[in-house]
Amino acid sequence: MTARKSWLLYTVIRLAFFIVPLLILDALGFQLWLSAIVSTLIAVSLSIIFLRNARDNTSQSVYEWRNRDRTADDIAEDEILDDALAPADTKTQPPAENPEANKR
Question: Taking a C-beta distance cutoff of 8 angstroms, is the pair 57, 6 a contact?
C-alpha cells in the first residue's frame, strides 16, 4: 500500500469512528457536548483496537518522509539543536567529583 493510500485510509476510518457514534448519540437526543466526548472516547478505543496496522504504516511513512534526504551534517545539526533545546535537567552532566577521593 502506498503512503498516500495509507494516510487516506487511516484518516477516513478515524473520522468514521468519531462521526458515526456522534450522529447516533445526537439522534438519541444526547446533548452535543456529551455526544462529542463519548464519541471521542469510542473513536480512540476503536482506533487503538482495530487500526494498529494502518497506524504503523502511517508512522512508517512519516519516518521515511522525514529521513528521505538527510545527510550526516543534517543529522549532526539536529542532534546539536536537540541538545540545546532540551531542558537543563535532562541534559547529560559530567560526573561530579567524588569528595571521598580528595581525602588522602
Answer: yes
